[in-house]
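queue> holo job accepted (flavin-adenine dinucleotide)
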Amino acid sequence: MIYDAVIIGGGVVGTAIAWQLARYDISILLVERESDFCEGTSKANSGIVHSGYDPIPGSLKAKMNIRGNQMIRELRDVLDYDFVQNGAMVLAFSKDELVQLETLRRQGIENGVPGIEVLDRDEILRREPNLSKDVLSALFFPTSGIICPFSLTYAFWENAHANNAEARLGCDVKNIEKNGDIFILTTSAGVVEARTVINAAGVYADLINNMLSPRKITITPRRGEYVLLDKTERGFVKSTIFQMPTAAGKGVLVTPTAHGNILVGPDSVDIADKECTATDSEGLDYVMRSARKSAPEVNFRKIITSFSGLRAHPEGGDFIIDMPLPGFFNAAGIESPGLTSSPAIGEMVSEMVSDYLKAKKKSRYIEERKGIVKSALLPPAERARLIDSDSRYGNIICRCEEISEGEIVEAIRRGATTLDGVKRRVRAGMGRCQGGFCTPRVMEILSRELHVPMESIRKNNRGSEVLV
Ligand SMILES: Cc1cc2nc3c(=O)[nH]c(=O)nc-3n(C[C@H](O)[C@H](O)[C@H](O)COP(=O)(O)OP(=O)(O)OC[C@H]3O[C@@H](n4cnc5c(N)ncnc54)[C@H](O)[C@@H]3O)c2cc1C
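queue> job finished
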């Protein structure tokens, strides 16, 4: 079969493109080299839906950020992802930073960020009593929010799939050639043919582009490290707290997550290895030291895990969304604010692809997608009714996050085949003990539901089997 569109990459950008393209009456295949969606940068970032004050006015980043922020706020009830509009503050600590704050305010207005407020020291400390008393002033951006990046990626994919998009996981694209009007993709899972190819391969988007495009690009992995604090710290800050942005990025933040933890990070270091998501003491010390400038009392004894993610930094600094040769499209160099921008990138790329294919919209399209029920968050009577209808919702498997067997079975029904796949869909293993208690129990459920032996259950990709 020759697909109308093949998307390379199952991160938040590739799935957002699939979600928007699935509105058209065309055949779509998403290929992802890992064993699940959201295994690249989309799984390790700050999870902020940025308001849009930071990108250079007129850039693609600025346009995509503003539109993406608006779409994420509007689509929450349609696609049912975990998003809280908590607002963000940028703090100024010196006279120089007061000048920069005003520049940032003007830039925000020029970019079209709505509702920017200027706060004085008293108002800042009234809203956020745990911030440093040294703060002089701040900007508040009410449209900023916090999102679970996994839930957004799965929401895009599940809706695309409901509208007939297909996916091939464990399918690594090794080479692309063009024969007449048809692209021939050589992959680890056989040959795939397509009328159009969309490159959403994250830090590998340069390799994919350079297989075909006359214009070569370079993507540098820019690593950012984080520490995540226990939910005992819930409420330490309510909004997302930024320091002044620099050339290296938006700086170290202290923020609640969409699920009530406190997240601190990231740093920003260019590295050579596109796979190196390690953390080290130097990076984590820097992150913790920097965060204390904003919030001196942040309790680092409550760290439950640390992690890092790789920004796909392009040479020119702006997103690369183009068609360098007929039928081949790039969504490359999608560093921050790529998570925020993802629905807007999906919208823009799908318009470019559908124009090229002269595709028509489907007459029957499913707009809505429902997420997996969160039994612990239901009102008691509703939770009791759910357990009456299916007793597995009364069997708690992950004690930290109160995740039931019913939710884990539903995650597997929706495509989870690994421990991480379950964790990212329903949070079993995300809590204080980081899976110390529930891992063997989730493995038993995976083994039972997938009819495979326990020895073949993996943490994520090939080679990460837990038992020998
Ligand atoms: C430290 C950090 C903090 C960030 N914070 C924010 C934030 O707060 N807000 C925000 O808006 N953005 C943020 N971002 C940016 C955001 O995370 C990214 O822009 C976004 O996740 C990029 O998504 P993607 O789909 O392009 O890439 P990815 O998620 O990396 O997906 C690319 C996929 O392509 C697959 N792939 C690669 N090569 C091949 C191949 N040959 N064949 C098949 N598949 C292939 C990979 O396996 C991967 O799954 C942050 C990024 C980092 C690193």
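queue> The mean pLDDT is 97.
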